[in-house]
C-alpha cells in the first residue's frame, strides 16, 4: 500500500502548546512564526501535500494504465484514467477476464481450489455519474470480495464514480492485478517486481561474512543507473548519511532494510508493506526529526522553573516541513 497522508504524523509541538502563544510571550496566536495568517499557511500546506501525494501516485497510475490498455485493448492513460473507468464497465471486463482465466486453471488442473460462486452482471452502456455506473461499480466490488480481496483493499463506490479517491482506486486495481496473476494473467510491472523480490527473499544464501553497508558517497566503479538515482534523490532530500547500500536493490534507510526497484527506468520505487511508494516520497515522510528545545517564561512561576528547557522528539516531520521541503526539491529539479 502506498504511504498516505494518514501516516504523516504531525507530532511537532506547536507554539501554542509550548506556551509561547500567550500574550505575555509577545506573539499573536492568530499568526504563524513568519507573520502570515494561520489559515493562509494551512491552506498552502494542504495544497503542497496534495501535489506531493499526486506525484507519488503517478508511477503507479502509469503502470496500471499501461496494463489495462494492454489487457483490454482500450485507450487509457494517466490523463484520462478515472474518466475511462468511472462507469465501472472496464473494471467489470477485467474481473470477467480474470474469472475466465480462473476457470481455465481449474479445468487444466493448475488450480485445485474451488472457485467462488459469483455472477457478475453489469450494463455496458452505463454513463458516467449515473445510477447504473454506481451499480456496475458495486457489482465489481462484490466480485472482488468474493475472490478474496479484503475490505481495506477495496475503494468505496463513490471514490470512483465521483473521482474523489484516486489512491484507493489504484490500490484496488493493483490488488486485482495480483488476483489475475495468480490465474496466469500477464501482470503490471509493479507485480513483476514484487515477485522478483519474493523470489530473492526465498533463496537461502549462505555468507561467511555479511556485507558491510556502503555509504552513498563511497567509490563504486560499477555504479548502476538506479543506484546513481538513489544517490541523487537522497542528496536532494538531505538524508544521504542515512541511506546505505546493502546489495543490488537493497538499502538500509533510517535503520530499516528496504527493497528499491527501478520502474521502467523512470521511477525509483520502494517496497512498503504490501504496496509501493516513490523513493522521494518515502524519504520525505520517514526522515526522523531532530530533538527540539523550547524555552518559555511562565507568568507566576519561579524563574528557574519557567526557564527550563522542554525537549520534543518526533519520528515524523510536520505537514509544514514536508510541504516546505517538497517545494525546495521542486526548485532543485
From TrEMBL:
Residues 58-181 form the Calponin-homology (CH) domain. One of its GO terms (biological process) is actin crosslink formation. This is Growth arrest-specific protein 2-like isoform X2. Residues 216-290 form the GAR domain. Its main location: cytoplasm. It comes from the Eukaryota. One of its GO terms (molecular function) is cytoskeletal anchor activity. It holds the Pfam family CH. It comes from Crassostrea virginica (Eastern oyster). Keywords: Cytoplasm, Cytoskeleton. Belongs to the GAS2 family. One of its GO terms (cellular component) is actin filament. PROSITE patterns: CH (PS50021), GAR (PS51460). It is found in: Cytoplasm, Cytoskeleton. InterPro entries: CH_dom, CH_dom_sf, GAR_dom, GAR_dom_sf.
Amino acid at each position: 500500500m502506498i504511504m498516505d497522508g494518514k501516516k504523516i504524523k504531525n507530532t511537532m509541538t506547536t507554539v501554542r502548546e509550548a506556551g509561547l502563544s500567550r500574550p505575555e510571550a509577545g506573539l499573536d496566536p492568530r499568526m504563524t512564526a513568519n507573520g502570515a495568517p494561520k489559515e493562509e499557511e494551512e491552506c498552502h500546506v494542504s495544497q503542497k501535500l496534495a501535489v506531493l501525494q499526486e506525484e507519488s501516485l503517478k508511477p503507479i497510475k502509469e503502470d496500471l494504465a499501461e496494463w489495462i490498455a494492454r489487457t483490454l485493448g482500450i485507450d487509457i492513460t494517466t490523463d484520462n484514467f478515472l474518466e475511462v473507468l468511472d462507469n465501472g464497465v472496464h473494471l467489470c471486463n477485467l474481473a470477467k477476464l480474470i474469472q475466465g482465466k480462473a476457470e481455465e486453471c481449474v479445468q487444466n488442473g493448475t488450480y485445485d481450489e474451488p472457485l467462488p460462486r459469483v455472477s457478475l452482471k453489469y450494463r455496458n452502456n452505463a454513463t458516467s455519474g449515473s445510477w447504473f455506473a454506481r451499480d456496475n461499480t458495486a457489482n465489481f466490488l462484490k466480485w472482488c470480495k468474493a475472490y478474496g480481496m479484503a475490505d481495506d483493499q477495496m475503494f468505496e463506490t463513490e471514490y470512483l464514480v465521483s473521482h474523489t479517491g484516486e489512491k484507493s482506486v489504484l490500490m484496488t486495481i493493483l490488488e486485482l492485478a495480483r488476483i489475475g496473476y495468480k490465474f496466469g494473467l500477464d501482470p503490471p510491472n509493479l507485480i513483476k517486481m514484487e515477485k522478483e523480490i519474493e523470489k530473492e527473499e526465498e533463496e537461502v544464501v549462505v555468507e561467511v561474512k555479511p556485507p558491510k553497508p556502503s555509504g552513498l558517497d563511497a567509490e563504486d566503479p560499477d555504479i548502476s543507473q538506479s543506484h546513481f538515482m538513489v544517490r541523487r534523490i537522497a542528496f536532494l532530500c538531505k538524508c544521504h548519511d542515512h541511506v546505505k547500500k546493502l546489495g543490488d536493490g537493497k538499502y538500509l534507510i533510517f535503520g530499516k532494510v528496504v527493497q528499491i526497484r527501478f520502474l521502467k527506468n523512470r521511477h525509483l520505487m520502494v517496497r512498503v508493506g504490501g504496496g509501493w511508494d516513490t523513493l522521494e516520497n518515502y524519504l520525505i515522510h520517514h526522515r526522523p526529526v531532530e530533538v527540539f528545545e523550547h524555552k518559555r517564561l511562565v507568568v507566576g512561576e519561579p524563574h528557574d522553573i519557567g526557564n527550563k528547557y522542554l525537549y520534543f522528539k518526533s519520528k515524523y516531520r510536520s505537514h509544514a516541513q514536508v510541504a516546505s521541503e517538497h517545494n525546495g526539491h521542486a526548485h532543485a529539479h
